[in-house]
Design a protein that fits this description.
Number of helices: 27
Structural class: mainly alpha
Mean pLDDT: 77
Low-confidence stretches: 170-249
GO cellular component, one term: Fanconi anaemia nuclear complex
Pfam families: FA_FANCE
Organism: Carassius auratus (Goldfish)
Order of helices and strands: HHHHEEHHHHHHHHHHHHHHHHHHHHHHH
Shape: globular
Protein name: Fanconi anemia group E protein isoform X1
Oligomer: single chain
């Protein structure tokens, strides 16, 4: 059955969504944009009719026999993948029974594509709130075990390089015939060489593709794999540090001479004087490559928090100020690892150091510290990290730098920690352009299903509706109305009342 015949089973709005889901790799994103626009024009619009129609039984011919299949099974594999990705984005705001019924219909078909299988299982796990078993296939599990076994001996020679040694050898063997053929300038030989290279590349890719069979990891195997992963991570960090320190031979002698002086001051936590400031002048003489090497040799990421205030105080006494690249490198090595590892409220010494450097070097701090913390992705931001970022936003950044942070937030995953930072930014009364506010309301609309019961999200919406009324145009009004339809907190009536008070 062709696509046009399939689409006749759906209403007009659903057909528009289905066309978006057929638009290649960006189908899920395009469908979300269409859905958001539909919700703006009609806040009561739901996907229930679409999901119910996809689950309807449809007669079709299978192996010379007339059988009944769910309508969703008659669409292409690309459509199914885009539909599952689309439901991943919106499922918190959809009826669970409708989505689970659709997943059951999909599993009735013989799903050959491994990505589709994984997406079905992952969405089912997210809806049911379970994390049992694994999404890995049996072949992928075997390769992961074999990979981790190579790191059981932490003293093994080669470490990361050893794991990819065979792959690099194959690449070299593949490239050598091509180079020799170019020297002979023979068209026929070039063609054969390219064919050989393509065949070799396909063979390497096939080696890493999982098979269609799948098994669960046992309770005894999972802890071993996690331990091995930690060991391999530590080994790679150690190897990277050795590579950086090995390049220290390229540093000028006077820079090398300053390293033990600064390290002793950091390690002993003794009082810093004018001589200490003189030692830090070496940062003025570094180019971007040298400052990276110097920071690694000084092991700034391992400096004790008690030594940070004095070290930062001496940096601030340097004249002229550090260059943008140098300040960014120092902040990345000195402060970022400590902020990323925070599991409890930051110490007074760490907060003092961060705020002092942020006040003097706001833009490097935004790019080298605040943005990486915001972009943590699936690992999420902890409350201790959010607290530090909120203090920087409120006490250290100028309005134009707050706007820089705000625009960064529009492109990162949101969690409760990020919501705290957004609330702090909104309370600072940002000077938003019409475009910035429109992008923000679009992001609010896409995120609202995920935070339907979040009090932080509700309070942030209330702040938008009370402090930024002048920014709300008719399009934004529809978007905000759509956001409120997802809200399930006791503030919903207050939010609706605040929205009604906005005159267009």
């Amino acid at each position: 059955m062709d696509l046009r015949a399939l689409l006749q089973r759906f209403d007009g709005r659903s057909r528009l969504l289905l066309h978006s889901l057929h638009s290649g790799a960006a189908g899920a994103s395009n469908a979300q944009t269409v859905f958001n626009k539909q919700r703006r024009s009609d806040p009561d619009f739901t996907l229930n009719p679409l999901l119910e129609t996809l689950c309807q039984q449809e007669p079709c011919v299978h192996e010379d026999a007339l059988v009944l299949k769910p309508l969703v099974c008659l669409f292409s594999e690309g459509f199914k993948r885009n539909l599952l990705c689309f439901l991943h984005l919106l499922h918190p705001g959809l009826p669970k029974d409708h989505v689970l019924h659709l997943l059951q219909c999909l599993t009735q078909d013989d799903v050959e594509n491994q990505w589709t299988c994984v997406l079905i299982k992952q969405l089912q796990r997210d809806i049911e709130g379970t994390r049992k078993g694994t999404l890995l296939t049996s072949d992928g599990t075997g390769k992961l075990k074999s990979f981790c076994e190579r790191f059981r001996n932490t003293n093994a020679k080669g470490k990361w390089a050893y794991c990819f040694e065979d792959l690099e050898t194959e690449d070299k063997e593949t490239n050598m015939p091509v180079l020799s053929q170019k020297k002979r300038k023979s068209d026929n030989m070039d063609h054969d060489g390219d064919a050989q290279e393509d065949h070799q590349s396909k063979r390497v890719k096939t080696d890493f593709c999982p098979s269609e069979e799948e098994e669960r990891l046992t309770e005894e195997e999972e802890p071993k794999i996690r331990t091995s992963q930690l060991q391999q991570s530590a080994a790679s960090v150690s190897q990277a540090r050795s590579d950086v320190l090995g390049s220290s031979t390229n540093l000028p002698d006077h820079m090398k001479a300053a390293v033990p002086v600064i390290k002793e001051l950091l390690d002993t936590e003794s009082a810093w004087d004018e001589c200490s400031v003189s030692a830090l002048k070496v940062f003025h003489e570094c180019d971007p490559n040298e400052v990276e090497v110097l920071c690694s040799m000084l092991c700034l990421s391992e400096a004790s928090e008690q030594s940070l205030p004095q070290f930062c105080s001496c940096l601030l006494e340097l004249s002229p100020d550090l260059s943008h690249s140098t300040a960014s490198a120092v902040i990345t090595h000195l402060l970022l690892p400590k902020i990323l590892s925070l599991a409890e409220p930051a110490s007074r010494c760490l907060v003092t150091a961060v705020m002092s450097l942020c006040t003097r070097y706001p833009r490097p701090t935004c790019q080298a510290l605040i943005e990486p913390v915001l972009r943590k992705g699936q690992t999420g931001m902890k409350s201790a990290q959010a607290e530090v970022l909120c203090r920087l936003v409120v006490d250290c950044l100028e309005p134009h730098h707050r706007l820089l942070v705000f625009r960064t937030i529009l492109g990162v995953p949101w969690d409760e920690g990020v919501l705290s930072v957004i609330h702090a930014l909104l309370d600072s009364e940002l000077e938003l352009s019409e475009e910035d506010f429109s992008l923000f309301t679009d992001q609010l609309c896409s995120q609202s299903p995920h935070f339907s019961k979040s009090m932080k999200f509700a309070k942030m919406l209330l702040s938008v509706l009370t402090k930024y009324q002048s920014h709300v145009n008719p399009a934004c009004h529809h978007t905000l109305s759509s956001c409120l339809s997802f809200n399930e907190t006791f503030l919903k009536k207050s939010l609706q009342a605040a929205l009604k008070r906005i005159s267009l």
